[in-house]
Structure to design on (894 residues):
């Protein structure tokens, strides 16, 4: 059974239809990319899947369980983790503290939470920085911290929202290998990304969103040559990447 | 005592069955409307400052009190209260500008990225305590009333008694409302203020020093406070704690009308004024206050954006 | 040999024995200082330290700025007093009932208001607290029950009656409030080091991020207000028994709420010792001002409070707890190794 099934999903904000009859199925352990011009509805899709916005039409099933009416914290406890495009570190607290908040999702004891957090921080390669305050981190580290926090909650499905944005080539390389490591650990990934090269190399499958509708889906090679996709990007006035 | 008599005999009220009751209600409505419009004037500054800078000025009430004391002082040396505006308003504009650029700006900068900047709120709360008690220390706890030629003066229209000072206050409210709206809509500075309020970054790109704009906006807000205080002096008592009477009410009005909306502040003030004066017909003053609080809480839960408010992201 | 479950090593470290020394000083204070005036001052200091610590749970840790906490003090004071005056129930039990009632009110108020962010919430707390206070002020009696209205209630005088929470010698009250303060500190300490503390902090820092990490914002905020309400109500009962007279503006007034706010912000929100430090530094100022300047200059202490608050916000937003901690540890280092 696919881990995530989005069927005929519709989301409206007043008169604007942000997501229009969207279908997507993701199998366990897959890495699926989600691309589309700005304003296509990608982050909205994340928000609906994690319960930040209610569903207006259609269904979403996670491991067979309907996500209709779910609240964000419930989404996390059933195994959906997410990062935010505009990262949200707890800036006056240390990196370790930040990740421990995530750990408490699965454990109740402080020492256990600390141990779990340290494990995650080692995995993402931030052990030397555990005592730094959130506000003093570089953008690359903030993004990494964001991922670490989400990982500490023990997700089975991880939604990554533009974790590569604003990184230099070297940082991007490191981020790509981290994402591959996460996948190797058995976590299913749905990734929003603007940096084309990244998403092409990471994803097994890509879905393309434009004005809330899916205009293409398939392996990276096929999608990148799809005429509709090319038109969507080139014809779009607001391409700022 | 001045008594402008436009004594229009109105025999029709005798024709009403229970016409006396009706007249009391009409009187209450008129009073509530006049007083309410002044509540609105007091709230103008608060809502303007919030709309532009997203700043809640907790010290608002104490600044009103200080304006009243200044106007009172000028009255005591013989100045006509409405003439004293010439001094009070500019002084308060300057005070507002200085306050903004020295203290509040600093607190704003400290929390530039924070979603809910509480620093300014707490800073102004500290200032509130400071100002109120400083004045208390300086002038003592006595209640004072100004003796002006308008104090106690009334005139009649169709049998309805109108307090002269209230009427002038109402006029001041309407004039400032139109002046303010025109300023914001038609002058360059006014538009710059609105621009800075809507999109800080865009305004900056247009070469507008938004901190200077904030200073001006806050100055205008304080000028309005100066105006409000002055028009209160002819008929209200002056005391260091008088701010509290209007303070909480101002917040309620601003939220009721919608943060950032001057029309909202006006109508919110009128609503509160009407609740108070009509309510006083049925219950004692304290219960009307409880009703006001109740209405306020209801608004917060049902429609926090207020009557005219825009849905903004807190 | 073990002390408090830790080895001798722990006790010999300067930062620890200094702290223990301070605690001992507090407990031995009445043994050395016999003047009732100073004991009264200290009672008030510790009372505010406790009260502000309770406030800190909601407004510091959970970050929900409350300017209406006095309503819980009022509920505690009135509940235990009314139960005692009318049913003869000892305030020792009555205070817990007051606590429970305060929790009930807290949840009732919190449920709709926690939707509101920042300043909206703060203003709502003022409206609720003032509204309730005015209702009490205007209610002389409910049926046959005497509420007292604006004149308040006096607690039936029993002189020395330990089981009825009344003592002639104020020293008893000193120790009661001292123990209460340490209870409050302990509760704060446990919150700070536990999942609850981490979750409240996360909610305070960024509620959306917190939700995404599995935190039910509403549940934890309600928990915070419940704890705050319960312990604050206990202080209300204490105050009633200390003063033997309560009236709405004294126990439920805005000035009391603002005082908690001032002490908490200046001391340091979201820290264990911040409120205590704030109280210990500032309440003596208030009492000194009251004694030496007297009632001719009302509010002198508030001028100081207000100015310090403004200065703290601009220059030390996390309160004076930080620099004082540095001084303390600096001193400890000077005293010896392992400091």
């Amino acid at each position: 059974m696919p881990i995530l099934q989005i069927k005929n999903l519709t989301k409206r904000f007043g008169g604007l239809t942000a997501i229009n009859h969207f279908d997507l199925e993701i199998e366990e352990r897959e890495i699926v990319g989600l691309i589309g011009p700005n304003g296509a509805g990608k982050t909205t899709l994340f928000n609906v899947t994690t319960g930040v916005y209610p569903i207006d039409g259609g269904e979403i099933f996670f491991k067979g369980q309907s996500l209709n009416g779910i609240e964000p914290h419930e989404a996390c406890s059933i195994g959906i983790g997410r990062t935010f495009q505009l990262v949200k570190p707890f800036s006056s607290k240390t990196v370790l503290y930040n990740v421990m908040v995530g750990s408490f999702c699965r454990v109740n004891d402080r020492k256990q939470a600390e141990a779990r957090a340290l494990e995650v921080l080692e995995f993402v390669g931030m052990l030397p920085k555990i005592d730094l305050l959130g506000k003093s981190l570089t953008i690359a580290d903030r993004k990494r911290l964001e991922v670490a926090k989400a990982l500490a909650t023990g997700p089975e499905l991880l939604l990554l929202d533009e974790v590569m944005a604003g990184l230099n080539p070297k940082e991007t390389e490191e981020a790509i290998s981290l994402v591959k490591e996460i996948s190797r650990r058995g976590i299913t990934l749905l990734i929003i990304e603007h940096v084309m090269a990244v998403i092409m190399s990471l994803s097994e499958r890509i879905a393309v969103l434009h004005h809330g509708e899916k205009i293409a889906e398939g392996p990276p090679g096929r999608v990148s040559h799809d005429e509709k996709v090319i038109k969507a990007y080139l014809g779009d006035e607001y391409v700022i990447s | 005592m001045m008594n402008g008599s436009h004594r229009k005999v109105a025999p029709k009220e005798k024709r009403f069955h229970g016409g006396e009751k009706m007249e009391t209600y009409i009187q209450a409505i008129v009073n509530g409307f006049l007083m309410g419009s002044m509540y609105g004037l007091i709230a103008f500054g608060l809502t303007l400052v919030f709309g532009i800078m997203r700043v809640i000025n907790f010290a608002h009430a104490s600044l009103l009190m200080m304006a009243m004391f200044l106007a009172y002082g000028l009255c005591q040396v013989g100045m006509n209260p409405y003439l004293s505006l010439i001094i009070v308003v500019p002084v308060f504009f300057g005070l507002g500008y200085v306050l903004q650029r020295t203290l509040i700006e600093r607190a704003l900068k400290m929390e530039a990225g924070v979603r809910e900047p509480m620093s300014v709120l707490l800073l102004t709360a500290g200032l509130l305590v400071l100002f109120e008690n400083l004045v208390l220390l300086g002038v003592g706890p006595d209640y004072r009333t100004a003796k002006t030629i308008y104090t106690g003066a009334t005139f009649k229209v169709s049998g309805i008694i109108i307090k002269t000072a209230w009427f002038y206050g109402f006029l001041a409210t309407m004039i400032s409302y139109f002046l303010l709206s025109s300023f914001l809509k038609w002058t360059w500075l006014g538009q710059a203020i609105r621009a800075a309020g809507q999109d800080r970054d865009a305004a900056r790109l247009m070469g507008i020093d938004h901190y200077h704009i904030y200073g001006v906006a806050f100055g205008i807000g304080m000028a309005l406070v100066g105006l409000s205080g002055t028009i209160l002096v002819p008929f209200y008592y002056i005391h260091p704690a008088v701010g509290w009477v209007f303070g909480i009410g101002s917040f309620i009005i601003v939220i009721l009308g919608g943060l950032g909306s001057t029309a909202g502040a006006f109508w919110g003030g009128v609503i509160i004024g009407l609740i108070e004066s009509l309510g006083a017909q049925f219950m004692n003053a304290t219960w009307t206050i409880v009703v006001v609080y109740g209405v306020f809480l209801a608004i917060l839960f049902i429609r926090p954006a207020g009557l005219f408010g825009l849905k903004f992201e807190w | 040999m073990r002390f408090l479950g830790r080895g001798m090593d722990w006790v010999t470290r300067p930062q620890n024995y200094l702290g223990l020394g301070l605690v001992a000083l507090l407990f031995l204070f009445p043994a050395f200082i016999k003047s009732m005036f100073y004991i009264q001052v200290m009672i008030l200091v510790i009372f505010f330290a406790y009260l502000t610590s309770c406030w800190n749970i909601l407004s510091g840790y959970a970050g929900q700025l409350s300017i209406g906490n006095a309503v819980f003090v009022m509920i505690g004071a009135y509940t235990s007093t009314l139960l005692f005056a009318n049913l003869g129930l000892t305030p020792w039990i009555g205070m817990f009932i007051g606590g429970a009632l305060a929790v009930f009110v807290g949840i009732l108020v919190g449920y709709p208001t926690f939707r509101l962010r920042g300043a909206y919430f703060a203003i709502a707390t003022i409206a609720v607290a003032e509204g309730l206070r005015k209702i009490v002020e205007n209610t002389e009696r409910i049926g046959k029950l005497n509420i007292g209205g604006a004149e308040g209630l006096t607690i039936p005088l029993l002189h020395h009656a330990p089981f009825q929470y009344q003592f002639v010698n104020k020293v008893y009250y000193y120790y009661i409030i001292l123990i209460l303060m340490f209870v409050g500190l302990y509760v704060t300490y446990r919150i700070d080091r536990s999942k609850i503390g981490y979750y409240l902090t996360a909610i305070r820092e960024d509620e959306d991020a917190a939700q995404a990490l599995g935190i039910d914002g509403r549940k934890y905020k309600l928990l915070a207000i419940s704890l705050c309400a319960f312990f604050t109500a206990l202080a209300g009962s204490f105050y009633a028994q200390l003063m033997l007279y309560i009236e709405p503006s004294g126990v439920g007034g805005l000035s009391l709420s603002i005082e908690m706010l001032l002490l908490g912000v200046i001391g340091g929100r979201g820290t264990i010792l911040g409120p205590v430090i704030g109280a210990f530094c500032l309440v003596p100022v208030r009492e000194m001002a009251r004694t030496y300047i007297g009632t001719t200059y009302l509010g002198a202490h508030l001028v100081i409070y207000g100015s310090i608050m403004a200065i703290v916000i601009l220059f030390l937003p996390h309160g004076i707890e930080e620099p004082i901690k540095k001084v303390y540890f600096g001193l400890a280092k000077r005293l010896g190794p392992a400091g």
The interface with chain B takes residues 65, 67, 112-113, 115-120, 122-124, 126-128, 130-131, 134-135, 137-138, 206, 254, 258, 261-262, 265, 297-300, 302-303, 305-310, 312-314, 317 of chain C (CB under 8 Å). Residues 217-243 of chain C form the longest helix (27 residues). The longest strand of chain C covers residues 2-3. Chain C has a mean pLDDT of 89.
